[in-house]
Design brief:
Shape of chain B: globular
Order of helices and strands of chain B: HHEEEEHHEHHHHHHHHHHHHHHHH
Structural class of chain B: mainly alpha
Number of helices of chain B: 20
Oligomer: heterodimer
Number of domains of chain B: 2
Distance between the termini of chain B: 31 Å
Number of strands of chain A: 2
Number of domains of chain A: 2
Strand order of the largest sheet of chain B: 3-4-5
Shape of chain A: globular
Order of helices and strands of chain A: HHEEHHHHHHHHHHHHHHH
Number of strands of chain B: 5
Helix content of chain A: 55-70%
Chain lengths: ~525, ~475
């Protein structure tokens, strides 16, 4: 019930905002409704700590023999950090919206709150069935938003392609559940068998754009700072949460080392692109992919708490950075130090357990360590550059002086939550972590900062081989072209068969196929 | 008063009388309202049981004898009649917005009544005759006056007609099996001929070629109606055979055959759909896959499988209604339903485009939509037997999903400014259908009150 009430605060406020947008577009108290709903939801999430684990089970779909599971939501120590991160992000978006140019934007706030509500439900999902339902809701929302907000053929095409990739992710998650069922385990995250873990990893990797490396959406999509940040980060959080549900004994698959190697390289590339992005918003997809790669690698090493640590760092440090649009020296310093702390993996930071490992050493480990340590350093260096030298910033409307006081709270909230999660509330809090790894990453960050003004190739350019925009062909295109040609070949084959079956001799062909089919199925006699 | 009179002869008479009416709107209202009333009555009035309202007591007899044959409706038929006539009402109301009421309502009511008769007739073997009459009646519905029938229609009639003698012959052989159950050869021959007959009747692979051909030749809304009502009733007829003859019901080989045939249909339809560029044919392949899902459910050989087969009735009917209506709205404003002619349709027809995309995604089993719970239950049941079987089903669903994503990619291409050119009535009907798809996707148990009793129609299988 506690869960339901918290989520209802968000959905009710969103509904009220949508109604006011239609009936009274200039309604004066819209922001107060949004902020009130967000504060109540945030406080609700914080209060879950008092009674965790909390369960919300929806009515069963039918007989147990037909539907093994009903939708179930559980707030536990792995879900709670994500839930708090998302609730904080939602509140930060609404609070900082006071200083935006498009204030008031009731529809946008309603969308933000709906997405945060869906994101919370995704983080609390206790079985694949529940998670795929929420994923589908998020994906449809995202697709609809992009289609309505874009007039470019390329953007719409990529939105549908991204949607398709996410659908495959949904299919893989279902496969993981079926794999568990086939081995006699229930279709939930508590009893997932190790053989199913690989499908969870693949599902999350595909949805996050890490495996294979791809950008679901262009970086300069029409939705930018407030709603766009929510969309990107909620989507990432809803996928990352399953990494915390990977069986503690790790992944039982011969594919695991290959995935670890691929993930590490994808993380390194994305972190490199992040550091060289012209501004934080342009680099946002790379920020998500790079952190997702760190989280995926942690899960592949049998370290779910570490994956949660990287995940909340992605949402909170990233959220604060992407929402910051107004120049304020003190705020920028707070953002810089608190954000860096969050992603540093230093003791007592939320990402402290990020470098722990429970998996056996394999050949991929020797690729993973240097690649991901460098990736962390690149992320931190990029973070510093984007905070200290923002490409775009706006001045506050002098008529809205109250916004000047409210805006820093909006940016400060995610940073405060970042510090809080390092100390309180879940398994990864108050952890010492792997100090040598974080120190190496720190040293590499300093080296990169020193080298950046000295080496031209470390400075921002827009050269991509995974092509986020309408630029020339990328190197991965060869692979996708191959797949496309394969698809077209199959298409031609099916066209030929269809022509034969539907043509003049179609009936004879059909009867022939029928006889063949029956003879194949007929019991064999000696 | 008897139940067959109310749910067979009355709609038949209304259908015949409505041939005399020429106004589209009046026809649609007559068809829609009468079907809706019959649906409500089926839900409210118990068959063969006394209904007391105050001092007034009333009993609707379940049987009527005609020419030595009986038409019998049991109490458990009530829910089925409510579903069939309720969904038919949606089809009839939708026909008016497309100017198709004159073709759909008279024939549609007659076809529905005949198919109900097929369910009710005793001895049940005569059902094949009623189904054949319904098939023949559907021809004037599909082919516009003075239009030459295409190859698809000819093949449809031919295949359905071939099925009748095969089933009747198998029935005759089966009566011999009942008298001498030890005759293995006779049993095998009867089973093989029966399977062949149902392969034609249910359009099992590779005999389903007429379905996509038909969607190219006839109006998609009318084909949609047929694809909704015909396989559903035929499947009930097939279940009747399984229920009556223990050697069929208990045959592991037959169950495997049903399951494999269903999987083959789902996989081939999915693969074919993945490469289609014609919106009508995509709907056809989805309908074929749905029949495959039905066979898989029956092939499970359990009471849960039967329950699952019945649970598919509403999502299937609802999905096809939304799909056919949306497709018809788009086709009315495009040169053809080919991808090349419907690019950017979402800008001018956003509701119809959303309808077609969501109905397609529902058929492919997208979570949140009505088709998902059934697909999920099927996948779970198959994975308990073998993960390989579940993967084959996933392949079929992936094919359907590919078709849906390609449709989506084509219709959302930016071509012009956003506008809404559907009529209000079209938008409301499609909108309500889409809403129902979401409700049934999230709360499939909402329809359980209609489907829970249906397995009781079959004394042996339903237990």
């Amino acid at each position: 019930m506690f869960i339901l009430i918290t989520i209802l605060f968000l959905f009710a406020a969103a509904l009220a905002l949508a109604i006011f947008q239609v009936t009274q577009p200039n309604y004066r108290f819209g922001w107060l409704i949004a902020a009130g709903g967000s504060v109540l939801a945030w406080a609700g999430v914080l209060l879950w700590q008092a009674q965790m684990p909390i369960t919300l089970q929806l009515p069963a779909w039918g007989a147990t023999a037909l539907f093994a599971n009903a939708p179930v939501f559980v707030a536990d120590q792995f879900a709670w950090p994500y839930a708090l991160a998302l609730a904080t992000l939602g509140l930060a978006v609404i609070v900082s919206a006071a200083a935006r140019e498009n204030f008031p934007a009731l529809f946008s706030w309603a969308g933000t709150m709906t997405l945060i509500g869906l994101g919370l439900l995704a983080t609390l999902a206790d079985n694949p069935l529940t998670l795929v339902l929420v994923w589908a809701a998020i994906d449809l929302t995202e697709l609809t938003t992009h289609i309505f907000s874009s007039n470019e053929t390329e953007t719409n095409g990529r939105a549908v392609a991204g949607f398709a990739a996410r659908l495959v992710g949904i299919g893989l998650l279902l496969w993981a559940g079926l794999e568990s069922m086939a081995r006699g385990a229930a279709l939930d995250f508590q009893t997932t068998v190790p053989q199913a873990g690989i499908f969870l990893i693949l599902a999350a990797g595909l949805r996050l754009g890490v495996l294979p490396l791809h950008l679901g959406y262009t970086s300069d999509s029409a939705v930018r700072r407030g709603f766009g940040t929510t969309l990107r980060l909620v989507s990432a959080a809803s996928s990352l949460v399953i990494l915390a549900r990977i069986p503690a004994q790790g992944i039982s698959s011969p594919l695991a080392p290959y995935l670890l190697a691929l993930t590490s390289l994808a993380g390194l590339y994305a972190a490199w692109m992040w550091m060289r992005s012209p501004d934080a918003l342009a680099g946002r997809p790379y920020w998500v992919i790079a952190f997702a790669a760190l989280a995926l690698a942690a899960a592949l090493r049998g370290n779910p708490a570490g994956s949660v640590g990287w995940g909340v760092a992605l949402i909170l440090a990233g959220g604060a950075l992407f929402l910051a649009s107004i120049q304020n020296k003190i705020l920028n310093r707070v953002l810089l130090f608190a954000g860096l702390w969050g992603i540093s993996a230093l003791p007592f930071s939320p990402s402290a357990r990020g470098w722990e490992s429970a998996a056996e050493t394999s050949w991929a480990t020797f690729i993973m360590w240097p690649a991901l340590l460098l990736a962390q350093a690149l992320l931190a260096a990029g973070f510093i550059r984007h905070v200290t030298r923002p490409a775009t910033s706006t001045d506050l409307d002098p008529d809205r002086a109250w916004a000047r006081n409210v805006y820093p709270i909006g940016i400060g909230l995610p940073l405060a939550a970042l510090l809080l999660l390092g100390l309180f509330g879940w398994d990864g809090a108050r952890a010492f972590g792997t100090l040598p790894a974080s120190l190496v990453a720190g040293a590499l960050t300093l080296a990169l900062l020193w080298l950046t003004p000295r080496l031209r190739w470390l400075n921002p350019v827009r050269a991509h081989w995974i092509r986020p925009q309408e630029s020339s062909a990328s190197r991965l295109d060869a692979f996708y072209d191959f797949l496309w040609n394969l698809y077209r070949s199959f298409g031609r084959l099916t066209e030929s068969i269809t022509a034969a079956l539907e043509g003049d001799g179609g009936i004879l062909w059909a009867l022939l196929f029928l006889v063949l089919f029956l003879s194949l199925l007929a019991p064999r006699t000696p | 008063m008897s139940a067959p009179l109310l749910w067979i002869f009355l709609p038949l008479s209304i259908g015949a009388a409505s041939l005399l009416i020429r106004r589209e709107r009046s026809l649609s209202m007559i068809g829609g309202v009468s079907a809706a009333m019959l649906s409500v009555l089926a839900f409210v009035i118990p068959i063969d049981e006394a209904l007391s309202i105050g001092s007034f007591s009333f009993k609707l007899a379940g049987s009527v004898i005609i020419l030595g044959r009986s038409l019998t409706l049991q109490p458990a038929h009530g829910s089925l009649l409510a579903i069939l006539y309720g969904l038919a009402a949606m089809w009839f109301f939708g026909a008016q917005t497309l100017g198709l009421a004159r073709r759909l309502v008279p024939m549609g009511l007659a076809i529905l009544a005949l198919l109900v008769a097929a369910i009710a007739v005793r001895p049940f073997l005569f059902a094949s005759v009623f189904i054949e009459i319904a098939v023949l009646l559907s021809v004037p519905m599909l082919v516009a006056p003075f239009q030459k029938p295409g190859r698809g229609i000819l093949r449809y009639v031919a295949f359905q007609t071939i099925a009748v003698p095969l089933i009747l012959f198998a029935g005759w052989l089966l009566s011999g099996v009942e008298t001498s159950p030890g005759d293995v050869e006779l049993t095998a021959a009867a089973t093989a001929i029966l399977a062949l007959g149902f392969a034609f009747l249910l359009a099992i692979f590779p005999l389903y070629t007429w379905i996509p051909m038909l969607t190219e030749e006839a109006h998609p809304y009318l084909v949609g109606f047929l694809l909704w009502v015909l396989p559903q009733t035929t499947a009930l007829f097939a279940i009747g055979f399984l229920d009556r003859y223990p050697f069929l019901r208990l045959s592991a080989d037959l169950m495997t055959l049903l399951r494999d045939a269903g999987l083959l249909m789902a996989v081939t339809a999915g693969l074919w759909a993945a490469f289609q560029r014609h919106l009508g044919r995509l709907m056809a392949y989805a309908a074929i896959a749905e029949t495959g899902f039905l066979l898989i459910a029956l092939g499970l050989g359990t009471s849960e499988g039967i329950q699952l087969a019945f649970m598919q009735i509403i999502p299937r009917g609802l999905g096809l209604t939304v799909w056919a209506l949306s497709l018809s709205v788009i086709q009315a404003r495009a040169a053809s339903p080919r991808f090349v002619d419907v690019q950017g349709a979402a800008r001018a027809l956003p509701i119809a485009s959303a309808g077609i995309a969501l109905a397609h995604l529902s058929a492919a089993g997208l979570p949140l939509l009505a088709g998902f719970p059934i697909r999920m239950a099927l996948l779970e049941s198959l994975s308990r037997e073998s993960i390989g079987l579940a993967i084959w089903l996933l392949v079929g669903l992936l094919g359907l999903m590919t078709g849906a994503v390609r449709t989506l990619a084509v219709i959302v291409l930016p071509s012009e400014k956003w506008d809404q050119r559907e009529t209000y009535f079209q938008a409301i009907l499609i909108g309500l259908g889409v809403l129902a798809l979401f409700i049934l996707g999230l709360f499939p148990q909402a329809a359980n009150f209609l489907t829970t009793d249906l397995p009781a129609l079959f004394q042996n299988l339903g237990q």
